[in-house]
TrEMBL record:
It comes from Leucobacter iarius. Its EC number is 4.3.2.2. It is an enzyme of class 4 (lyase). This is Adenylosuccinate lyase. PANTHER family: ADENYLOSUCCINATE LYASE. It catalyses: (2S)-2-[5-amino-1-(5-phospho-beta-D-ribosyl)imidazole-4-carboxamido]succinate = 5-amino-1-(5-phospho-beta-D-ribosyl)imidazole-4-carboxamide + fumarate; N(6)-(1,2-dicarboxyethyl)-AMP = fumarate + AMP. PROSITE patterns: FUMARATE_LYASES. Belongs to the lyase 1 family. Adenylosuccinate lyase subfamily. Transmembrane segments: none annotated.
Amino acid sequence: MTSLPTQPISPLDGRYRSAVAGLGDFLSEAGLNKARVHVEVEWLVYLTEHSLLGASPLSPAEVAELRAWAADFGQAEIDQLAETERTTQHDVKAVEYLVRGKLDEMDLGRLAELTHVCCTSEDINNLSYAITVKQAVAEVWRPKLESVIVELARQAEQYRELPMMSRTHGQPATPTTLGKEIAVFVHRLSRQVAQLDQIEYLGKFSGATGTWAAHLAADPDADWLAISREFVEGLDLDWNPITTQIESHDWQAELYSRIAHVNRILHNLATDIWSYISIGYFRQIPVEGATGSSTMPHKVNPIRFENAEANLELSNAILDSLAETLVTSRWQRDLTDSSAQRNIGVGLGHSVLALDNILKGLGQIDAAPEALAADLDANWEVLGEAIQTVIRAEVTAGRSTIKDPYAALKELTRGRRIGQAELVEFIAGLEIGDAAKQRLLALTPATYTGAAAQLLDLLRG
């Protein structure tokens, strides 16, 4: 049997690569190594700028060349690291040798022993992961989420006054507006975004067991805690001073749990929109040339929302596992986090893919006002809530002596549909004040939407 050419195993690197490709700049092996090189170079520059451990300052041109090399990390460096790691069997050591090689090329071999000095691998790794995850969230995942929120807000405004039958427990209930129901998701997602903004991206830089022991042995007079803090914060990260060999990963657990919460809200959105499509509240806009079914030519399937559901579930399976796994490390260090963190991109990737599908799906639907109106007109019994509430107020005000208004409406409406004529006849015979009676007679399911439209104004606040 002839083998296929090398193929990607994950659909994120195959069928769906175009939707998630941006994550590869940060959460791939190459993206991680680029960040490692950046950290190693910045540490070397820091040591020379502050004349630590016997270092003398580099010239501005030398600093610029080193930083430009780290920033331009590309295929040549990727290939060289792969070749070196075949010998070292250690990814961070391969990065160290890569930096040493660049120093030799620049005739700066005298600084070679400052490369990776006082660092354990995890000093480099934890900062590199924090940098890449922060960038991936800020530059890829977050903009995609914001695009979905913006589109939902646009549709919420578009449909703010379009009346719609609510369904609680799947049964007809007090009407709302389609815009208000979409606004619920805008509000929920916006709250999560605000909380995401509060998450710290922590980094440690304190040696083999978090004690700065080697640092103090080499230079007991330097304020290594202050140096560590300044270096970590200089990478636009938050400093974690008290750790074992590893940064404790609590911030990662917090971040992935928050993203998983966003995913669950999006999952709820996808199932709701799918259900509204199913009952005809939304029309799907056919995509030119697309096929809905291999055998049924008429079909336009809500596949964008179905795809989103599946990918949100896959994303959460990974993110939940990461949040659970990463917060535990045996004593001062074990390697469970190393294997787990290599899947951060997979977890975020499935979420990005889901967001992409939701955004495209939202762009391929239109509300069907006639279907919404027909459903409302077929369920006049939902006005029973309004009628019994008005009667209670009239009794309290002394304008009615009706006993147990709720029971009266329950007898009239529960488990059966009644039409406008029957309801009007019932209202006309009520012993209530004339103003109240006229309000009820003017009410229809389509106008019984309370403050639903007005609630959208709160999204702007």
